[in-house]
Write a structure and sequence with these properties.
With 301 residues, the chain is of the alpha+beta class. It has four helices and 15 strands. Strand 13 and strand 14 form a beta hairpin. The longest helix is centred in the N-terminal third of the chain and has 20 residues. It is elongated. The two termini are 27 Å apart.
Length: 301
């Protein structure tokens, strides 16, 4: 609202209405101006906005994904399975939604046995490698089998591929989601005793639909979630975050940190001042105690 007096002076008031739950507030200033008493507060509102507005890139580390091909299948089938997996990983790396690191060379492609996880961690330690603590890890297996569904009229054989992948939250170590998708490729669909092929024209001829379905599941699960970061160091009124320009972070971005305290105002805003490829320097927006290294912060969208 703008006001113009007879003397020509202008006063303008601007307000923004935010719909949501007020999670906490604190008074930062109180004063009297003439007949008015002014109070300024800092408040944290939790809004319900289903629209995906952030295009920052979440970290996904690729751990071992085994390929198991049933006995009796040809080398062509086995090669097709391995090549389809590599194309899927290539598509993930090329996507704007993720920052993908292929960690199979760190953890080993054929780890097995009870001692394998310890060997993997030891190898990673020797190489000075750490997985993004605020990101996610994708691992699992692809199983390819032959399925015969003959009947009195048809000689019908399919190649069945089943992918079972676990999406792990690196920060908590818990499983975010188990993704299981199945796809069939028709090998033979003929009338008995003839060479007449009655296969469906639009039947899949490769495993691209299988991996497309998995990528869509990942997008649904993580695509609209705010980017997360871990505080790696604290110095006075500044902190270093574990994400940088490779994830799409830039100066001026804000991160929210909520932490345990005996107060409804146990939160802190951080404004990014400088971003390197893999880290950011952010300034605390208010004086708060109780913040520790390894705390988890989320990008404000």
């Amino acid at each position: 609202a703008s006001y113009l007096s007879s003397a020509g002076t202008i006063k303008e008031d601007t307000g923004i209405a935010v719909e949501g739950l007020l999670k906490g507030y604190q008074v930062v200033d109180e004063r009297r101006e003439g007949s008015r008493y002014l109070v300024s507060i800092e408040a944290l509102a939790d809004t319900d906005d289903s629209e995906c507005t952030s295009r920052k890139r979440a970290d996904i580390a690729i751990a071992p994904i085994s390929v198991q091909v049933a006995h009796g299948l040809s080398g062509v089938d086995e090669r097709m399975a391995y090549e389809s997996l590599e194309r899927f990983l290539g598509d993930l790396k090329a996507s704007d939604s993720w920052r993908v690191t292929d960690d199979r060379n760190i953890y080993g492609k054929t780890s097995a046995g009870a001692g394998a996880p310890k060997v993997d961690r030891y190898t990673a330690l020797l190489k000075g490698y750490t997985t993004s603590a605020a990101g996610f890890t994708l691992s699992g297996r692809l199983v390819v089998e032959r399925d015969r569904a003959d009947n009195l009229a048809l000689n019908k054989t399919d190649l069945v591929a089943t992918a079972t992948l676990q999406l792990i939250d690196n920060y908590t170590g818990g499983t975010v989601e188990t993704i299981r998708e199945k796809s069939k490729i028709q090998i033979a669909n003929r009338l008995w005793g003839t060479e007449i092929d009655i296969s469906e024209e639009d039947a899949p001829t490769n495993l691209a639909p299988l991996w497309s379905a998995i990528e869509a599941r990942l997008e649904d699960r993580l695509g609209c979630q705010p980017l997360r970061a871990v505080i790696t160091s604290i110095s006075a009124d500044r902190a270093t975050l574990s994400v940088g320009s490779e994830q799409g972070v830039k100066a001026g971005d804000y991160f929210l940190l909520e932490f345990m305290a005996n107060s409804q105002n146990a939160w802190q805003l951080m404004r990014v001042e400088q971003a390197s490829p893999t880290a950011s320097s952010a300034r605390f927006m208010k004086a708060t105690t109780g913040i520790r290294v390894n705390a988890l912060a989320t990008l404000l969208q």
